[in-house]
Amino acid sequence: MVRNKTQEFSGQVISKRAKNYTWAIAALAGAGLVALVARTLVAGGGLASGDSAWLLQWTIDFRASKPGVVLEVAPPWETAYARVYGQSLTHSGLRLQRLKVAQNSRAIVAVTKRAGAFTVTAEFNIHLSPRSRQSNVPRAAKLTADQRELFLRAEPSIPADSVEVESALAQLAGDADTAALTEAVYEYATRLRHDARGRIDDVVEVLRSRQGTALGRARAMTALCRAARIPARIVTGFLLEETYAAVPHHWVEVLEDGVWRPYDPRYGYAGDLPGKYVPVKRGGESVFSIDESASPQARYVITRASIPAAISSGIEKNVFDVLDLTRLPPDTRSALAVLLLLPVGALITTFARNVVGVRTYGTFSPTLLAMAAIYVDWLTAAVVVGVVTVIGIGGRALLPGLRLAHVPRLSIVFTLVAIGMVLGVSLMAYGDYVAAGLVVLLPIVILTNLVDRVYSVADEDGLRVALVRLAWTAVVGLVCFLVFLNGRLGDALVRYPELHLFTIALIVSIANYRGRRLSNLRMLHWLTEPAGRNPRTKAAARRAPVTEE
Fold it and tell me: At a CB cut-off of 8 Å and minimum separation 6, what does 322 contact?
């Protein structure tokens, strides 16, 4: 009778907890929905009259025949009317090497870590305003003699010393001074017919046929200026017009009185360009550069976008801007994206343990190992993890029967892991493979605890239990790796951090799950961890019912 009352009371407590859990889940999901709706409603609300926001997306596909193929991507330049307030680069299988900073080149450099096919996606958020920001008006260009000569010499695509160039220039020169000659060259280039078929871009052919593409006419004007000893360069960029099949546009900049002045023979603009012009590469004809043997193919998309209120000009700071992570610099947003992925990994691990019925070493070990595999060169990660595991576990085995407290034992394992990482990097250097500088991102503390916990479980429940749990940790880590691989999830969480209210709601739901685990099914009983020597492990194994679907 007492037992029945106890069971009845226990059932009431469980029912009450379940009701509380339901309310908590509903409240979290409701709060997340309200936050998403509120953010959507205010998105772009801070734009001043006439302002607009744009998203430039570049997708580059190529195939590398060997590791070490270098891809350089040029980001947009800010102008008097346009400023970049956000950017992201998805480059699975490549390693960012450095950021070139020069007068006419700021290329983001990525290097392939293996042979194979690759896809690189670059996205840039641009705020466009019809009001000029004087701070971005072209400044005086201080060129050295070598730099000046660079913009005067003939090139294969800009033959400033050909017969056709000399003949055309002879008709324009006369007694004109530099400014008048520049204007005459520009007028000549604007009178050339536009080649709508997009075939004529060779300077000689443009001057002979008196027609050419935007690139051909820009090349012709540059060649004529250089032949007249006027420094000139081609600029490659985009016009901010919504299209899913955008193509780069080309115009010319001429050095006049120490300032680079823009000229567009195609659309007839001189001295000042409309705000929708966004330069990407100054002194070059391509948005990106890579070995031609890689057979690169590029797609460009330009779409309108929303803009955070704090980005817009004329909008004062507001305390609610703290909740807008998109206002932060790109490097900071990238770090926050990694941090915001941790709860997603915890959700996957919770599902694996409470619904599937497999056990892992800790909640975040699979997540951090997956991140190490994504953000660190895979060969570096594999070698270092392998050496660390062997030395950590093997080193612990060299001390048989030694019973140490947790802190001294962890200190010994940490020391062995540190030595293992050093030896791993040295081993790759011996094999003529330079380890990535990001090797420090390997979660050394997690590896230390992982090695220690493997041995602790092996001591208590046997080596078989320890290895099975390690295997499931690796499997869950692989799932996290596949989820994180794209990179768009982290960007979405930075833009909408309130999505983690739904993450918490899901974790609470899974934690309160009282249904049948997959490992309880007879056909999937192999998912269950084998019973160990520890009495608690044996009892847990006995309590796990085996049913059949």
Answer: none
